[in-house]
Amino acid sequence: MTPEPSTADPDTVIRLDGVGVRRGGSDLLADLDWTVELDERWAILGPNGAGKTTLLKLAAAEMHPTSGTVDLLGERLGRVDVFELRPRIGLASASLAGRVPPDETAFDVVRSAGYGVLGTWRERYDETDDQRASGLMAMMGVVDLSGRRYGTLSTGERQRVLLARALMTDPELLLLDEPAAGLDLGAREDLVELISELAADPDGPATVMVTHHVEEIPPNCSHAMLMRGGRVVAQGLLDDVMTSENLSATFDQPLELTSRRRRFTAFRR
Ligand SMILES: Nc1ncnc2c1ncn2[C@@H]1O[C@H](COP(=O)(O)OP(=O)(O)OP(=O)(O)O)[C@@H](O)[C@H]1O
């Protein structure tokens, strides 16, 4: 049987329609509609337990919804082989960071991404794999750490190595779950700048970044979603969504949001 031609918009990278995720009698996500286009760069914010990581797992094809539909890169979850889909999606997350074998070299952590494994897998990689891994590590400023064991790297160095790994397959969609968690001020600023540069590349992947802190939103982000209790408080263009009112509703306290040169800060009123 010939497969039906896809009628999906080729520029739509993520499409969630009426999505719910239910576990143990509670709604982790409910009634979620969300569309991400290829040229969009999203920041997702919300308090602990809001459902941010669950949302990212759906977007990474690591989880199926309980209700509604999830379309990723023109393919519907449940009808597509997720192992074919995943190499098209770059993911850097704390859970991934914790699963990297500490003895692997930083270079192998990056290079093996193309094969969907962590650490060394094949005896021989193509020369193009080696070149791409080195190029990305140089771009992230960690090429000098290529031979170092992952377990000996600092948190900031690990985040950069994982970012290089996430880009190794030249993904159409890049998902970052709290990339700046645990970084000192300087390392955070370096990473925010790096992600902002990636976001500014018109040929770069659609990007979705989960963060706890408004200070970590890269200046080149175009869109934002604020979540609370598995539901959307506000979503859309960054400037429309990032208001004191929306942020206060999201964190259930009176907050004042200010911005300067497209960087945000928030205080309790
Ligand atoms: N398998 C499960 N069964 C029951 N509840 C779950 C399950 N997995 C996650 N949850 C709950 O779902 C909610 C959303 O979790 P999720 O990890 O998506 O939140 P989050 O916004 O990423 O939180 P954080 O900011 O703390 O990382 C949390 O309250 C969590 O305890």
From TrEMBL:
Single GO MF annotation = ATP binding
Q: Which UniProt keywords apply?
A: ATP-binding, Nucleotide-binding, Transport
**Recorded superkingdom:** Bacteria
The answer, when asked if Metal-binding is one of the entry's keywords, is: no
Task: List, for all copies, the residue spans of the domain called ABC transporter.
Answer: 14-254
InterPro entries per the UniProt record, alphabetical: AAA+_ATPase, ABC_transporter-like_ATP-bd, Metal_Ion_Import_ABC, P-loop_NTPase
Pfam families noted in UniProt: ABC_tran (PF00005)
**Gene3D superfamilies in the record, alphabetically?**
P-loop containing nucleotide triphosphate hydrolases
Carries keyword Nucleus?
no
Q: To which protein family does this belong? A: Belongs to the ABC transporter superfamily.
This chain belongs to which protein, by name? Answer: ABC transporter ATP-binding protein
* Native source organism of the sequence: Actinomycetospora rhizophila
